[in-house]
Amino acid sequence: MSINLLEKIDLDDVLAKFSIRGRYHVVNGLWLILGLAFNTLCYCSYVFIAEEIKYSCANDTLSLRYINKTLNWTYQVQNITSSTCSDPNPCQQWIYENPHSFVAEFQLACQEWKRTLVGPAHIFGYSVGVTLIGSFTDRFGRKPLAVITGITGAVCGLAKSFATYYWIYIAFEFLEASLGDPYLPLYTLGLEMVATKSRATYMTTCSLGLVIGGMSFPLIKWLVPYWRTCLRVMYTPGLLFILLIYLIDESPRWLLTKGKINIAVQNIENAAKIDKLEIEENLNMISYEQDVSANFTTVIADTFRSRSLLKRFFVCVVWWYTCIFVSHGLTITSVLLEGNKYVNFALVFLMRLPSSILAACVLNKFNRKGPLMSCFIACGLMCITHPFIPKDVLWLVITMFMTSKLMTGLSFTILYIFTSELFPTYTRNSMQALCSALGRVGGIIATQMPLLRAYWTGLPIVLFGVTSLVAAFATLLVPDTGKACLPDTVRQAESLDATESRTSQKKYNDSSCSRKNRTDFNE
């Protein structure tokens, strides 16, 4: 197969000649899937590592057994824990249901806040670190940051498995989340290596890594119950991120924005050789709007000076807050459902599989705004009605819950693509990272939502539903980017609003962002 290029060519035209089913993109997609699987595997580990364990005071337990030998362990623990924790005379020795658990080894009896602090520490660390990772990814490249964060996360994860003091563990939990999360550079790398018409399909396929990682964790925890050994089994594969230096190429779009045309051309030619495509020498004449003289701070300032982009930023923050708040809330709530907690947790992540397949079909046909609004509305209505379903109709309760999770997973898939398409290449990672960081406040709040069950068991999930409806209507404030050329500058990103308002969008909505289309795009 041959690629015939004009003297002036556009990057998207070149990428459109490659099939995402070709060997190059299939192999790169495999590495991205494995990288995202590792990221998800580690991100949700705190749910079971710091799980709740029953305990009781040793003296009270012996006394209770002497008075009534018919009481079983569970009944003793449930009754004694509340009384001994409020006793003015502190207990000198505690007996734990599982003496080798996280709670037992760090002696967290009657210190429930310390056990639950692990989750917020991780989410807060991610909120702090994602802005740094995002800006560094825009400045130094997608590939190096993917390698560095992957290895850093593995090292911090292994280090916390050896922690002998609680606060040292919390410190490594924070460091792992803030410096060792490779999701953003990996996702952006995949997004920028394919043409406009293939973005949705390719990235939803790569998102299968989230399903693999989420379902692998409860399996590993079930097979390796001791929490320290479990962490070592989980994090050791992360050291293999060093191999990505040789296994994947840097984003050609990022290379061109930095003026590294020769490297970008060489990577494209190597990809063509793998897929057995013939590329003419005039590939070196590839055109791309560059601004290598502008420093990062200036570009960020230009982004926020734009009223249009500032409005998109606030809408994106609402999206991210909602998705993270609802997704984390439903995931945490899943372990409170009837049945095996490992199976329930795995089923929650299994919902990402149909959501990824559905997203690939929907996004190619209905663009971005309509599907995202529909998901938010559907999730909101199901969450609001969930508490009013009769509890004895268990199959309907579980179905509604899992469908809500399905809609949340679909929203997340659309959200990552949509947010990336609303901002220019120069600040794409930084803006997405900032939106994600602010949205993580929702994750921190979600970890405390089970406490509201004391007032009404249905209150948390109703709040999830109301928040989803608010996010749905906020979507009306941004332009649709489904078939748009990926903007590289602030000016191109601003023109998305004007382009959507035109009565005729035939040229703009062409599946290939040709140079002619991009010229119109920049007007």
Architecture overview:
Helix content is 67%, strand content 3%. The protein is globular. Among the domains are: 55-97, no CATH class; 294-523, Growth Hormone, Chain: A (Up-down Bundle), CATH 1.20.1250.20. The protein is mainly α and 523 residues long.
Summarize the structure.
The chain has helices spanning 11-16, 23-43, 46-49, 58-67, 73-85, 102-105, 112-140, 142-161, 166-179, 183-192, 199-206, 208-223, 227-235, 244-247, 252-257, 261-274, 296-305, 307-334, 341-350, 352-366, 369-385, 394-422, 428-446, 459-474, 490-501, 515-521; strands spanning 2-3, 9-10, 55-57, 94-96, 278-279, 286-287. The chain has 523 residues and is mostly helical.
